[in-house]
Structure formats: C-alpha cells, structure tokens
Design brief:
The chain is an alpha+beta fold. The chain is built from 17 helices and 36 strands. The protein has a 9-stranded antiparallel β-sheet with strand order 1-9-10-11-12-19-16-15-14. Strands 2, 3, 4, 5, 6, 13, 17 and 18 form an 8-stranded antiparallel β-sheet that branches. A 3-stranded antiparallel β-sheet has the order 29-30-31. A hairpin with an 8-residue loop joins strand 4 and strand 5. Helix 6 packs parallel to helix 8.
Length: 644
C-alpha cells in the first residue's frame, strides 16, 4: 500500500494535522474515527461509535482516551488535544508528536517527551463493536501513564449537554459499564464522574451546525511502564452477552493480519490499488438484518441503493467479493416494487424515490454475470428484471414511464428530485431535472440491452427487448445532441414559465457531466465524440474529478461551504464529484484518448483528507479542497474500478 506517514512539521501544525482524518471500521457500520492531531473536529469523531438497527443510526460512546505521562521528576505531560468554546486548544499534545503513520489501515502515533517515547496503536475487532487501544513504551522510562476516558452516549448526529442527567456508570472488574450500553476495561481504573463543558468541533461550525457539546469524564486508567515494550492497553466494547474480547494487543495484531488478507484477496496491481482495495473494505458491512450491505460514506451516511449499485463493480467485483455481491444483489431484488428498487434512507424508512437507482441495479446484475460467468444468478433474477422493464413501459411512481412517442424514459412530479442530483433546500429541489435526463436514458438503454443479453443467455426470446432497445437508441441519438457541441442534460423539460406537465417544454443544454454515461456504459447509446469530450474536459475536469456544472454556466457555485442551505445549493451546481472520474475515464478510453494522467490528483488525494480513501466532494474552484464525507463508497469504488 502507499506510505502514509507524517513527521512533526505536519503533526505539530494544528491546521494540517486536524484536517487529515483516519477511519477504522468495525464491519457492522460502526467505527473509530479522528484526526492525525488527536483533536476531535466533528461531533462524529470517537473511539467507539456503535451502529444501531441500521448503519446510519449510530451512537457515540467512548469519545477519547487522553494520555498523560508522569515523569520521575514529578512533571505531568498531557498528550491529548481538545478545542474549547473559549477558543483555547488545551492540551496541545500534537506538538509532541514526532510521527503519525497509517500502516495496514491502522493509525499509529508516537509522542516524544525528552528521551521518553510513547506509541499508540488502535484497532477494532471485525464484526463486533469493540475498540482496542494499545500504548507502548518505545524508549526511556520508567514512567507512569494515565488515560483519561471521556465519554458520552448520544445519537451521532447530535450532542449531549451537561445540564441533563450524568451518565450512569456501573462498576465492573477493571472498569465500568456506561449507560448500560458499552464497557470500558483496563488496568488501574479509577472512577471520576464529572462534566467537561464546552468542547468545540470546528468542522461542525464550518458546516453551519451547532459546534459544542459536553463530555463526561468517566475515570482514568493508570499503570507504570518500566522498560521498552511495556504496554498499557484499554478495551471498550458494546455491552452484550457475548464473551469478553481478546486482549487488546491480540485485537491489533489480528486486525493487521485481516487487512493484509483483504488486500491480498483483491490481487492489486500496484500500491495505489492495494490502498483502494482496503478502503473499499470499510464500506462492505454486515448488519443485523442483512448478510451484506454498503455504507455510502463515513461518518454520517448509511445505506443508499443508488450509491450501492454505482459502487457495486468496484467494491465487489474488483476486490474478490463476488460471492458476497451475489447475496447483496439477491437481497436487493427482493425489495423491488412496481418495478422500482427500494431506497433505504438513513432514517430507516424504505422509500421508492429514485428514477436511476433501479437502472443502476440492472447494470450491476449485468456486470456481475458478465464478469463472473454466474449465469445462475442471471437466470434467477431475470423474471424480476423483465418485470422492471414492463413496469417502466406501463408507468410507475413519480411519473416514471416510457414515452410511447419515442421510447425514452421520462419522469418527474412537483417537488421531486429523482436523479442523483437530488439536493433540496427547504424542501425545494435545486436541480429537479424533470423530463428526460441524459444519464437516466443512457442507463435505460444500457439496462434494456443488459436484460436482453441475460434473456438470451437463459435461452429466452429477447426480440421484444431488442426492438425496445433499438427504438430508444435511435431516439436518443436524434434528441440529445445539442448545438453547443455536447449533449443536452435534459430534453422535454417543462419550460420555467409553465407548470410541470404544461404544454411548453424546452431542452436544457447546460454543460454537466451526466452525459458521460451516454458514452461510457457497456451498452452506451452513442460512440464517444473526442471533440465533445474535449469540451467537457475544458469545462468540467479538475484534479479530483469532474465538476457538476461548468464555471461559465449560470448558477455555477465554486465553493461547497457554509450552512446546510448554502452547501445543498452548491451540491450539484459546480461542486466536484470524484466518482465521476469513472465514466469520464471510460468514455475517454472508448474515444481512444489517454487516461493515465487522469488519476494523478486523486492518487495524491489519498493522503490529504480521509487518509487512504477518497472524499465525497470537493470545491469546484481551486485549490479544490475536499468537502463532504472524507470516506465515500462510490468515490473509492469508481477510482478502483477504472484505474485497471
């Protein structure tokens, strides 16, 4: 894997160290997450974040273990880091860091206090909400080491204040059970029990959200480290009837071995691919109700069907997980209703509210069968896939239907945002894209052709599907080319002066990246035009992928910043989306254009924001600072898929 290592000049400079985040997932949707500096900049940061009924319904438990070294001289040196509502950062343990590295996907810190060097390693027990934190004496000593346990128990999206009841602490051997929810265990436990008030999260303030919370100082662990190699280890895990976890040192060693096995199973071609293969592993989880699910992004997303299906090939087929992928596709097929795939929202509700998620599902099944030769799965799912086509022909929810006049797919009702550009501000879609969006119809053409191929593999008659496909391709080629030299983003869109469904329509030719799917999909409706791709490159391409709107278009917003309304307004109005590098590279390859240099910026990005991973979004204007989730499934999956 690529080397991710920082010395004192990065670790000791707060802005640099606090803007680089690490993630250690538990395989169930929970995680440990923080920054190189050790400073918690988000309400979502913590050492034990536990998933609930769904991956998105997480709760924050153990927040931090703040080390302090007690030297023989009597000096007490604190190695933690907190920012307070007063503006103070205290303690400033990051100034004593001589190194941070991410090795085998696990974070490791080294603090130097004169001749004393303390190392911290951290890992989670795969498949269980359990974190192991190991502190080791590397040089110097003997010294005493204290670990102050700061805790909470709250929804990951909220905060807890000290004006409410204190956290319940039930004493147990070697520690305590907090709120009946999770257990702390380690040597020399001394319970305390009072609030640390006014902890400040700078990233939440930047997002226009409430940035403060109070933390419960539960107690401290303490031990003497006499000689090199001595350790002080703490375990924290969800309180359940399962046996106690193995010793912390064993948990860390086992996590390293597992991560190496994950990388080996993906058979990476180079260090970047090895890094992406391990990054992909974070998103593939097992939940209480499903044998396998995909987390769309950390730290705040859960499972979303569109994201899952776009990510499918990269996460499953490129990483040696075809068997797991098979189970996921079968489970999702069971959610089909009226020809639409369920979209499990982060609230836990099951909704049917995308026009493209179902079409991405058709694509994922087709790619699975093509890549693996698993015709048994194709045969099993074929009746459901044919039913999807029939439902779209007949018409289904949200005005989604094949237009009998041309065979293209149309959609849209007032207030709906059905494509992947689905941001809303105060309930109003920013980019409603009603009518016939270009990528939706590219996916429709691709999906019909894919189902026809599966039908032929099953020995079934596919003539009707072929006729449907040919008609849609002809209409696509007639309707979507725009005078500007690229493809319309939407055709037959309701004119602004008319209500949805009114008599007047227009064709939207804003320069957006959605048209890339018309050239990049396996059964794309058009051959890529190098000149059109060149125009897209000039207007859209950045080091981290294509923008969602060109800078010279009306409504362009180059900064994805501010409060929720400001960020959602800019979400698809110029913000960069790294996942789009996949269709951009595919289209370029098909056009005979070179692609190797397309990935340089994203490869460098692996050590800039979410360490070893790829962000959800970035600013549309230079320096294209990353925004959104630091760890995003489709961003990782598409880069992994398309680099090979």
């Amino acid at each position: 894997m690529i080397e991710i290592r920082y010395g004192s000049q990065v670790c000791g400079e707060l802005t640099s160290a606090a803007s680089r985040e690490w993630l250690v997932p538990d395989g169930r949707g929970g995680y440990a997450m923080g920054t190189v500096a050790g400073l918690r900049t988000r309400r979502y940061h913590g050492l034990l974040v536990i998933p609930g009924e769904t991956p998105a319904s997480r709760k924050v438990g153990l927040v931090s273990l703040d080390p302090a070294v007690l030297l023989p001289s009597g000096a007490r040196v604190r190695l933690g880091a907190h920012e307070w509502a007063s503006g103070d950062v205290d303690p400033r343990g990051f100034e004593l860091l001589e190194r941070f590295d991410l090795t085998d996907g696990l974070p490791r810190w080294r603090w130097r206090v004169g001749d004393v060097v303390i190392e911290r390693e951290l890992a989670m027990l795969p498949g269980r909400s359990c974190v192991a934190v190991v502190h080791r004496l590397i040089s110097g000593g003997p010294v005493e080491l204290e670990l102050a346990a700061a805790c909470t128990w709250r929804d990951a999206h909220g905060e807890r204040r000290g004006d409410g009841p204190p956290l319940r602490m039930d004493p147990v051997d070697g520690g305590a059970v907090i709120e009946g929810a999770y257990r702390l265990s380690g040597p020399g436990w001394s319970p305390q029990g009072h609030w640390w008030r006014g902890v400040y999260h700078r990233e939440e303030a930047a997002r226009g959200l409430h940035p403060e919370e109070d933390l419960w100082y539960a107690g401290q662990f303490r031990d003497t480290l006499h000689r090199r190699g001595d350790t002080l280890s703490v375990l924290a895990w969800a309180h359940d009837p399962a046996p106690a976890p193995p010793p912390a040192v064993e948990v860390v060693a086992a996590a390293r071995r597992r991560n190496r096995d994950v990388v080996a199973a993906a058979r990476p071609a180079d260090d970047v691919e090895a890094t992406l293969a391990l990054a992909a592993d974070a998103f593939v989880v097992r939940t209480r109700d499903n044998p396998v699910e995909v987390v769309a992004g950390y730290p705040w997303f859960g499972a979303w069907s569109r994201d899952t299906m776009i990510s499918y090939e990269g996460l499953f087929l490129r990483t040696g997980r075809a068997d797991l992928g098979r189970e996921l596709l079968r489970a999702y097929a069971g959610t089909l209703s009226e020809g639409m795939l369920a979209n499990t929202a982060d609230t836990g509700r099951v909704e049917y509210n995308t026009v493209d998620g179902t079409l991405w599902f058709l694509h994922a099944v087709s790619r699975h069968v093509t890549a693996t030769g698993d015709t048994d799965l194709g045969d099993e799912l074929l009746p459901a896939l044919r039913a999807v086509i029939d439902a779209h022909l007949a018409g289904t929810r949200y005005g989604i239907a094949v237009d009998p006049a041309d065979g293209l797919l149309t959609s849209g009702v007032p207030g709906a945002a059905l494509t992947w550009m689905d941001a809303r501000v105060y309930g109003v879609p920013v980019t409603p894209r009603h009518g016939k969006p270009v990528e939706v119809n590219a996916l429709w053409v691709n999906g019909v052709a894919g189902v026809a191929e599966l039908a032929e593999l099953a020995g079934q008659d596919a003539d009707g599907l072929h006729r449907l496909h040919e008609r849609a391709v002809k209409a696509f080629r007639d309707r979507f080319p725009a005078p500007a030299g690229w493809l319309h983003d939407v055709v037959d869109a309701p004119a602004p002066a008319y209500p949805l469904g009114g008599a007047a329509h227009h064709d939207d030719d804003l320069l957006r990246p959605n048209q890339l799917l018309a050239w990049s999909l396996p059964f794309a409706p058009m051959e890529p035009d190098p000149q059109a791709l060149g125009r897209l490159g000039v207007g859209l391409l950045t080091p981290l992928g294509p923008r969602s709107l060109s800078p010279d278009s009306p409504g362009f917003l180059g900064r994805h910043r501010g409060g929720p309304a400001e960020r959602d307004t800019a979400y698809h109005q110029g913000t960069v989306w790294p996942w789009l590098i996949g269709p951009y590279a595919d289209a370029s390859r098909r056009a005979g254009l070179p692609v190797n240099d397309l990935f340089t910026g994203l490869e460098a990005h692996l050590s800039e924001y979410g360490l070893g991973s790829v962000s959800e979004t970035a600013d549309g204007t230079a320096p294209h600072t990353a925004t959104g989730c630091p760890f995003q499934a489709w961003s990782v999956a598409e880069l992994l898929r398309v680099r090979r």
